[in-house]
Amino acid sequence: MAEIAVLGHGVVGSGVLEVLLTHKDSIAKRAKEEIHVKRILDLREFPQLPYNGLFTKDFQEILDDPEIKIVVEVMGGLEPAFSYTKACLEKGKSVVTSNKELVAQKGAELLALAQKNNLNFLFEASVGGGIPIIRPISQCLAANEVTEIAGILNGTTNFILTKMIREGMVFADALHLAQQLGYAERDPSADVEGVDACRKICILASLAYGTHVYPDSVHTEGITAITKEDVGYASAWGGVIKLIGEAKMLENGRLHILVSPMFISRESQLANVDDVFNGILVRGDATGDVVFYGKGAGKLPTASAVVADVIDCVRHLRSNRKILYWEDAKPDYVEPWDVTPQDVFVRVTGEGDSDSLFDRAQQVFPKAVRLIRRDEEPGEAGFTLPQIAEEELREKEPDLEKQGLRLANRVRIADF
């Protein structure tokens, strides 16, 4: 019998218990032995639960129990999750987590500690919820050079953008609906500002390229500046707007990585990933494009991935699988975000009709290609620019102002 402990009994933690209890027999067959939850750490009381006798408020009780060989960390946040995880690995206990903030910030340190102590630190659920992505990158695609990863990594923002695209909602109304339906937190800032997606693309990039990419080294933009007008221009261009986390290895050996809204062609495999679903495209030199699709969050999908890692840990209790590992960050590993050229959509506003605005914009950007959206109004114009870096676009803003134009928004155009 394998004894485990669960740290946290929130949405994911309760889901883990539900999956373990509901599928107890089939899980035992896959793990080659029965898995028994010995302790659950939470400060709250749960007298109504049939397993209420398993709860403890004392982490030390779990840490000092020699029978507990695997600890599931589903508390979320960096502390005390990091301190508890580190203590468990130092005490000879393997750890499974769904905590993307923990892995994104402390992954290199914790993986090194696990390897040193011949233990496992597994985190399949930290990126795609129930979507298998960590193992495929580390195992199934291991023979490839991963040239690029691009993903719709946050269900809340994808739901909001879907409503803006399909139903013409403004951002505020779509966000309010997401909150009403339980797809967005009361404080949705980590979602709509791109923080959640940033943590996930950092984990994937660290895994794919073997060097820890910290979230604070990644440029991140959310979707709060996206308007109905931008959505309309994307449609006129032949695509949709999605919040994308992108990581790409450049020829100079540096990593281009960012999170931002992007125009996605309707022909892209990610264009039809809608509502709360996530999609992750991995581009390998041998396989080409491989896409992983499914619900990126939720109680049971995430719990399913956590329990799968627990089963893996049980089957390898006496050995570190040595599959998941990356080094700490290298100096200047991440390319400055604003120097990489990329096709860009630009929307300008000013006095006059759209034809006049575009003619004046062409004085600054001779290569501009105009877009005309349905119900376009005077005082605005939209166009695309080929291969221009953010720093160059920024330098041209004073020239636009001299033409009586304001750069209202710009959205990158994806090439996948």
From TrEMBL:
Active site positions, chain numbering: 200
Transmembrane segments: none
Pathway(s) annotated for this protein in UniProt: Amino-acid biosynthesis; L-threonine biosynthesis; L-threonine from L-aspartate: step 3/5; Amino-acid biosynthesis; L-methionine biosynthesis via de novo pathway; L-homoserine from L-aspartate: step 3/3
The keyword Amino-acid biosynthesis belongs to this UniProt entry's keyword annotation: yes
Binding site for NADP(+): 7-14
Residues reported to bind L-homoserine: 185
Record-annotated Homoserine dehydrogenase catalytic domain positions: 132-311
Top-level class of the enzyme under EC nomenclature: oxidoreductase
GO biological process, one term: threonine biosynthetic process
Protein name: Homoserine dehydrogenase
Lineage start: Bacteria, Bacillati, Bacillota, Clostridia, Eubacteriales
